[in-house]
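Input/output pair, single chain:
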Amino acid sequence: MQLVVARIGRAHGIKGEVTVEVRTDEPELRLGPGAVLATDPAGVGPLTIETGRVHSGRLLLRFAGVRDRSGAEALRNTLLIAEVDPEELPEDPEEFYDHQLMDLDVVTEDGIEIGRITEISHLPSQDLFIVERPDGSEVMIPFVEQIVTEIDLEEQRAVIDPPPGLVDDRAEVASARDAEAATEDQVAPEDQA
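Output:
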């Protein structure tokens, strides 16, 4: 099975290094020196990692055969893809590969069916489940422990405890001033002077 583990960013310096946007929780395993990665677009690869280092909080990689800035810049926006055994699991039992989460049923803690995970969006701040509801609409569920309370791979489901308004039309008033305004709006016309 193939997993996207990084996206190549801009060139760094003049000796062929590139910044990478890491898309794996195991960069030391997937993006270490000697790793051979497939690419998207396929014509760019495979690429073999020659060196890697962290600079100012960013991972920098150099690939075999890429020796200058123009060669590095030509790799920009290329996806790096690792071949992974489908039975392999992350070391941390609280982590999951995307392929394990795809097509899981999403239900609330009360057992109400929300839908099925059709996509996982990896954002800088958090990951999002894109969930297709039975009516065909979609809802985005942040993949954070306060909302996604359980992943049960045996039962093929993700259990969520959504805040009001995330998957339904209920919403909480955000501040006391908003609460006062809402209360004033609810006063019947005959009660107003």
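The radius of gyration is 23 Å. Residues 176-185 form the longest helix (10 residues).
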